[in-house]
Amino acid sequence: MANAHAEHHDPNVYYVPHGSRWPVFASVALFTTMIGFASWLNEASWGRTVFFVGLAGLLAILFKWFGDVIRESLSGVYNKQVDTSFRMGMVWFIFSEVMFFAAFFGALFYARQFALPWLNGVGDGAATHSLLWPDFAGGWPSNGPAAIGGSYQTIPAWGLPLLNTMILLTSGVTVTIAHHALKEGKRGILLLFLGLTVLLGGLFLFYQAEEYMHAYKELNLTLGSGIYGSTFFMLTGFHGAHVTLGTIMLAVIWLRCLKGHFNKDNHFAFEAVAWYWHFVDVVWLGLFLFVYVL
Questions:
Q1: What is the pTM (predicted TM-score) of this model?
Q2: 184 vs 275: CA distance, rounded Å
Q3: What pLDDT digit, counting tens, does each position of 26-45 carry?
Q4: What is the number of structural domains in the chain?
Q5: Could you give the CA distance from residue 275 to residue 269 in angstroms, rounded to a whole number?
């Protein structure tokens, strides 16, 4: 939390904020949210209400908590060592996100390269095929037995997925231009291209929602469509959640830039969001190649 005497803070001393109530409140709100969500899934009448109450509380707490951190930054209590700590924290956070998506890409790779060939009796899978599922015959994309997964169609790579790829690649260019404009002190160009990045993120999400509705209503491609359906929606859905978070963060940074925050030497918050956005771009390129094209 911002210190009222921040202007007297020794720049050679690592700044440690005094006790904050926000972690405790956030834990309570998060616990409430998850209790409500679990109860909602189990069809409890009060589950949905509790979920949204907890979620609203969590968002309000995060808004206030982040506001305190912004005020700390503007008050000048952070020194070079604190900046280094923030950068290391963001690097490890993005690394954890890389591992998160690596698990789902790994599941996709395992299903395609090992599980399906074994079930078909290919190579070392003869025993698996004869003992576990002698009637199985199928390749990728697989929906398992038709009685369970049902027939479906996949989404062509060269339609909306290609359009969304171009949108995200363009957004990576616009956020980079905005970053250079910030370092050169060109506030007008900064606001223009950062705003374009926010709009491109929103456009990506719009087209992804269109793609999901098309998949469910017209292609019968759902989460229940066997291993292909589950991996498709897990990968693209979690990526969409990350794009949503990134778009919100970019919008907040745009508002801060509008208020005159940041300069060429002190703008780590902008850099952190830009790193995150480039990470989202790279993950999508992997998704486009391994989920849609191959």
A1: 0.84
A2: 19
A3: 999 999 999 999 999 898 88
A4: 2
A5: 10
